Amino acid sequence: MKNKATNKPAVTEYADTKAQVLQRQALVENIAANGITDVNVLTAIGKLPRQFFMPAGTEADAYTDKAFPIGEGQTISQPYTVAYQTQLLRVHPGHKILEVGTGSAYQAAVLAMMGAIVYTIERQKKLYDRAMHFSYLQTLPGLHFCHGDGFEGWPDEAPFDRILVTAAPDTIPPALTTQLRPGGILVAPVGAKGLQRMIRITKGEDGQLTEELFEHFSFVPMLRGKVE
Ligand code: SAH
């Protein structure tokens, strides 16, 4: 049911059925079986109803471990991928985290569920607007939204303890490593379509950057400029 005046989903739509709770538990077990060991990541995914983040009418697909189209040519990331990136990020409660690519806001909500303060940027106005008016997110503290270009980061809020990029740039944007606090960690899928590799960058206390390479993934490209 939609509220016609605002086109926002009615609060009654945020129902988590017993079946969905069980499906979510099975999804978490599947992610754990695939090698995710960070209990805080698994707990957050186990608590967060992914069906709330799916386009209307597609809620039945919420607990298949797959990416899903959310409009504007974008996707809600695969739960395993969300878990993988979040585990690499080594999140602690209270961390100030910059996310590039709000999309459905599912990843941002996972980080907020883990007790982080999240600053998330989206270049597409429609997706930013949707996240801003998504009433379920108002139940999670510590989420901040920006309509902007992630290549520039969020200078007014820097430095960040953690930076998570959820669209793939060809190379790590320099503004992002600049906005990373010494001792901080950045995780991003880097490379051209079909050839992306997950990269973790750690900034030493002396400012020196160390790069580690992980598995291959498939993300939408990180594009320049914002779209109205
Ligand atoms: N984190 C999202 C995944 C979204 S897919 C989720 O949990 O659903 C990647 C998103 O990055 C898309 O919404 C895309 O519009 C956005 N994006 C791509 N390039 C960007 C940029 N330069 N700045 C901000 N967002 C960007």
Automatic annotation (TrEMBL):
<dbReference type="InterPro" id="IPR000682">
    <property type="entry name" value="PCMT"/>
</dbReference>
<dbReference type="GO" id="GO:0032259">
    <property type="term" value="P:methylation"/>
</dbReference>
<feature type="active site">
    <location>
        <position position="77"/>
    </location>
</feature>
<keyword id="KW-0808">Transferase</keyword>
<keyword id="KW-0963">Cytoplasm</keyword>
<dbReference type="GO" id="GO:0004719">
    <property type="term" value="F:protein-L-isoaspartate (D-aspartate) O-methyltransferase activity"/>
</dbReference>
<dbReference type="InterPro" id="IPR029063">
    <property type="entry name" value="SAM-dependent_MTases_sf"/>
</dbReference>
<protein>
    <recommendedName>
        <fullName>Protein-L-isoaspartate O-methyltransferase</fullName>
        <ecNumber>2.1.1.77</ecNumber>
    </recommendedName>
</protein>
<comment type="function">
    <text>Catalyzes the methyl esterification of L-isoaspartyl residues in peptides and proteins that result from spontaneous decomposition of normal L-aspartyl and L-asparaginyl residues. It plays a role in the repair and/or degradation of damaged proteins.</text>
</comment>
<dbReference type="Pfam" id="PF01135">
    <property type="entry name" value="PCMT"/>
</dbReference>
<keyword id="KW-0489">Methyltransferase</keyword>
<keyword id="KW-0949">S-adenosyl-L-methionine</keyword>
<comment type="similarity">
    <text>Belongs to the methyltransferase superfamily. L-isoaspartyl/D-aspartyl protein methyltransferase family.</text>
</comment>
<dbReference type="GO" id="GO:0005737">
    <property type="term" value="C:cytoplasm"/>
</dbReference>
<dbReference type="GO" id="GO:0030091">
    <property type="term" value="P:protein repair"/>
</dbReference>
